Amino acid sequence: MDITQAWVIATITWLAVISPGADFAVVSRNSSLFGHGAGLASSVGIASGCFVHIAYAILGLALISQYVPEFFQYVRIIGAGYLLYLGVTMMRSKAGHISATPGGDHRFTNWRYFRMGLLTNSLNPKTSLFVISLYSQVIGPETSLEMKLLWGVFISASHFLWFGSVSMFMSAPAIRARILSNQRVFNGAIGFVLLLLGSVLLLKNDLGV
Questions:
Q1: CA end-to-end span of the chain, whole Å?
Q2: How far apart are CA 32 and CA 95, in angstroms?
Q3: What residues have CB less than 8 Å from 182, skipping those under 6 apart?
Q4: Distances in Å between the alpha carbon of 8 and those of 18, 58, 68, 92, 205?
Q5: Please, what's the b/e burial string for 19-51 (b: 16 or more CB within 10 A of its CB; e: otherwise)?
Q6: What percentage of the chain carries pLDDT values higher than 70?
Q7: Alpha-carbon distance 186 to 98, whole Å?
Q8: Angle, CA 40 vertex, CA 34 and CA 46 arms, to 5°
Q9: Could you count the other beta carbons within 10 Å of the beta carbon of residue 76?
Q10: Strand ranges (E), the chain
Q11: 3 state DSSP class of 71
Q12: Which residues lie closer than 8 Å to 42 by C-beta, 6 or more apart?
């Protein structure tokens, strides 16, 4: 693999990572309302979810299509349902007292945010299409398994670095204080975005895969 190809893969990856979507909405919401720990846990979940897409991209679409012909339709429908669920939950959530300076043991609550990030990314057809296109058209089937795995680590790490940065920004004291004073509006806005994304996925007939 030459330097030019590596730059192309890296550029496509970062453009895909920073484009707004469900992952961005979830990390922004969890970071600003519940602090950096929650946002970071969501970011780790998102980075982990990338390996779901990477796994079936490496295993081969032909094999998956042979045994589960409707695989990507299932991903689309389940992913859309999860986004709709998150959207409704956030829009219905009431403003509560949340400390602007969170502390204490958040190991168990952060597991919830990790799981949210994991499900949001692993059920996201947008990430699925990006990874499949990258592996099939740019990385190529002739690339060794070791390099495919290394590029998978790069994709996952890129997601973590970007969303970890988003988490740090959105959990800054000044931003958190402003958002916490308008929790219902913020939850409603994020919930609406997720509902919109879920509805588009649910109504989309063809993923183009």
A1: 26
A2: 13
A3: none
A4: 16, 19, 31, 43, 30
A5: eebbbbbbbbbbbbbbbbbbbbbbbbbbbbbbb
A6: 86
A7: 14
A8: 115
A9: 22
A10: none
A11: helix
A12: 26, 27, 30, 31, 113, 114, 116, 117, 163, 167
18 and 120 in contact (C-beta within 8 Å)?
A: no
The residue whose two tokens read 């690339």 is: 143
Query: pLDDT digits over 153-175, tens only?
Result: 999 999 999 999 999 999 998 88
Place of tokens 């779901």: 52
Q: What is the pLDDT of residue 97?
A: 44
Mean pLDDT highest for which of 12-26, 59-73, 100-114, 173-187?
Answer: 12-26
Quick check: 188 and 93 in contact, CB under 8 A? no
Res. 107: pLDDT tops 70 = no
Measured CA to CA, the distance from residue 69 to residue 57 in angstroms comes to: 15
Task: Tally the residues of the chain.
Answer: 209
- 87 and 195 Cβ atoms separated by less than 8 Å: yes
Contact 124, 23 (CB under 8 A): yes
Q: Encode 81-90: b = buried (16+ Cβ within 10 Å), e = exposed.
A: ebbbebbeeb
